[in-house]
Amino acid sequence: AGVLMQQVLQNPLAAPETLGVNAGAHLALTIGLLAAPAVHAAHPELLAIAGAFAAWGLIAAVGWRWRADPTTLILCGFVVSFALGSISSLLMLLNQQYLASMFIWGAGSLVEDGWSGVEQLALRVATGAIATMALARPLLILGFGDQQAKSLGLTTLLKPLLVAIAVLLSASVAAAVGIIGFVGLAAPHLARVLGAEKLGERLVAAPLAGAALVLMVDQLTQLLPPDQAADLPTGAVTALIGAPMLIFLLRRVPRLMLKTDGGLVASLGTGGARRPALVLAGLAIALALALALAFLVGRAPDGFGFYSEAFPWRLPRVVAACGAGLGLGVAGCLVQRLFANPMASPEILGIGGGVAMGLIAVLLLFADAGAELQLVGATVGALVVTGAILLLGLDSGFTPERLLLTGIAITALLDASSLLFLALGDPRSGQVLAWLSGSTYWVELDFAVLVLGAGIAGLLLAALAGRWLEILPLGAGMATNLGVPLHAARLTVLVLAAVTTAAAALIVGPMSFVGLLAPHLAGLIELRRARPQLFGAAMIGSALVVFADWMGRVVFAPTELPAGVLSVLIGSVAVMGVAMGRRKTS
Fold first, then answer.
1. pLDDT interval class at 261 (50, 70, 90)
2. What pLDDT, in 10s, does the model give residues 419-445?
3. Assigned domain for 391 exists
4. Closest CA to 190 of 207, 179, 206
5. How far apart are CA 477 and CA 208, in angstroms?
6. Which of 9, 245, 447, 490 is 20 to 30 A from 168 via CA?
7. Which one-letter DSSP state was computed for residue 15?
């Protein structure tokens, strides 16, 4: 499935998560467990597969209505995946006592009570493998690009057919054993690192690498005492073992040729808004309105109204939300231009995972860890991961392809550790889950001001490097010919992205959706050059998080919903609305 998606979408970051497979299956099972537990108990695999295909159907309908190029499908896939995932997170936050089993499913488990699930999975995998081999030649041609495929006479139905095969394979695995997400993303890269460069070789080597990785993990966990082995979900442990293996292999391969442009250069174009200052002025007005709403409008028992006396209590949260959104918007622009990939988000650096692990370490080591101690642990986690990224990228000159795969491996390793902590049912997992969902309820004013200052400083320094950011997506050769100091430019952009991401993650958690889509929203309103896109993404990110935080604490009062979950829903609607508006005018 990973090879299929990466080839069809022409992007090395494509995985089952890209097209909503896991998010759709997760939401369908969550709703089934809450609304129809008898159906969930009798046919969980049908619910998972139906949810996965429903998510893919929505992505396909929207993507092909606009235009079926890979970048559009990727953007639609992320919007739908994050939206469905946020609904699942919201349901799990409100019904934790009923949905504890979903943590185990989300971490992947090979525990079986018979052969029926294995037989069904084997049949679907065999069917998908035969269909893929039969379509190997069209699949090869699709990797050259849509224009080349059309000129060679490929029909438009082949792309959705190949993606449907990948969705079937991924959904079948999710239905049988839960989410084992790292394998779909990493197995094709493991195959490539081990020498399988041609598509035909990867179609054979990637499944073998994935099978060997999961089998090895399963055998290692069975060496543990039975009571411990039963508590370890295979999906999370696979990432724990597979990620270091990928990093080790990357450092042993002299040169890894990996296409990373992902259509970004084409999507940036050479034009943009004729008067970007007017567009930026409009965004500044929108941000000011969001801030005024967050500061002044509240809710009391008698309804909504202006409650200026609550200003001192609102100030820390609003400043924190503004700073976090600004930093994530800037970081999103930086990493997408550094990696020349529209699917890159600040989370690809793994810093959010480092913050989570620092928080978990403090909770495990100190029984009475307060907010200050938790903040210290989260900060140390962010610094350790940033240092690791810089150290591992040093010997390769911070080349995007190495940084990309190193970031994938570190992110998978840390996310798996967090997921393992949640799946083991520790009573302190509620604090980690609240942080992962993105909430500003605990922040103090001095720290909020510090985060806002870090975001503004990152924005101004990134603007000074605007020329580098224009040229870096064009490739190393072009950048060198145009006089860009390649190593220094990459290191500078990487450090700026890491610092702004770490500052935001300390307050609102990963919230990678904001960093991913803020640059895309800026591009959709014609802010495509580096500096206008930076300032546009910063204001869009700030307005989005501020508005989401206000909705979470006011609209649903007295119940409070985290800003991270609501920002996904609001951002998804915004992306769809802007894109549909552009489609009508064009």
1. very low
2. 677 666 666 666 666 666 666 777 788
3. yes
4. 206
5. 35
6. 245
7. -
